[in-house]
Design brief:
The protein is mainly α. It is built from 15 helices and no strands.
Amino acid sequence: MIINEKYTYLFLVFILTLGFFAQTNTKQQIVICDSVYYSNPDSSLKIAEQLLQKAKNDGDELLQGLALRRIGRYNLLKSDLNSSLINLDAAILIFRKHNENEELGNALSLKAILFKRLKKEKEGIEFSLEALSIFKKINDRKGCIKVLLNLSNDYLEARLLLESQKSLNDVLAFKNSFRKVDFYFYHQNKGLLLAEMNYHKEALVDLNCALAVADSNAMIDSKATILKTIAEVYNETGDFESALKMLKKSEEVCLSNNLEHELVETYDVLIETYKLMGNYPLAFNLLKLQNDKKNEILSLEKLNKINLLEKKLLVSENEKRMEIEQIRTQRIQKQNTFLIVVIIGFIILLFALAYYYLKVIKLKNLSEEKSKIIEEKISELSTRQSEMKSSLNYAQKIQKALLPPDNYIKKLINKK
């Protein structure tokens, strides 16, 4: 019994150890997915899709939410706003259900950016404020930094300069917890705010700080964006040559890294620069190139949507097939279970009958043995009784032979 308990404990420890390593591996994958997002978003997507598949196979709803948020983030990066909204909404529902506040705040922050892209700035700000209240509640400094930086940009685009400046001032309270990417967005937003307030020289200082952060940390899409932004500020100051240098660098980054949307935005600024310089032929030629690029992107997006629909349809069919197979397997298992129960019951019944039969035979044999013993005892007693009678009769005969007859004894008694 002690040995069995020992092995039972060892087995439980083994199972718990496996579960710990599996959970650790999943956490490591999530960390890797987040760490490579800015430098290699496609790799981040692949990891997230693997996590989503694992979550579906294991029935892990929370892991499914974690994967969906990261896929929604990638969709947002690639301007696939519809897919992003679907994935983020699904993730938010899961996080609310499981009280996963940190991930809920992150998902709401992404949704705020999404609504800003949809030109719904008011709703976007509301989502950001909800996220900020969640991060403050759980004392998540990194979350507060991210939301305040997003809010500063949202207020700036809504022309609420004082609110934007306040958000930037508030975020400095968490400067000790800044990550490298936070320094990028802080300097970018501050530069944009200063440019909006016509402090172009000061704006260029902050924007170049943001460029240095993006360059040193392989933030490819951010680098393309900040180069374009610096060019816009140079245009405002009339320094078109410097603007062209920045735009050519942005174009090079976009082309070498297949950043289609960033490339179109860069061409927008480049066309405006050519116009400001009075070079309308170049502006016209670039406009034609930009339209072709937009058509390519539109065709690619349509193709991606078709592929996505086909993929969803295939997944749906596979899920239905798996569900049918699962139902069939469950039925077979139930039938097998019933059959096993019947067989076990029949075997138990046979053992019970055999046991009863053997017990009856044993009792019968025991009864016969006892009857035989009793008969032997009775026979022995009968024999002894017969011998005793014979002995008594023999003694009586001897007694009669030795003693005189009764008449003679009576005569002697009467004479006296």
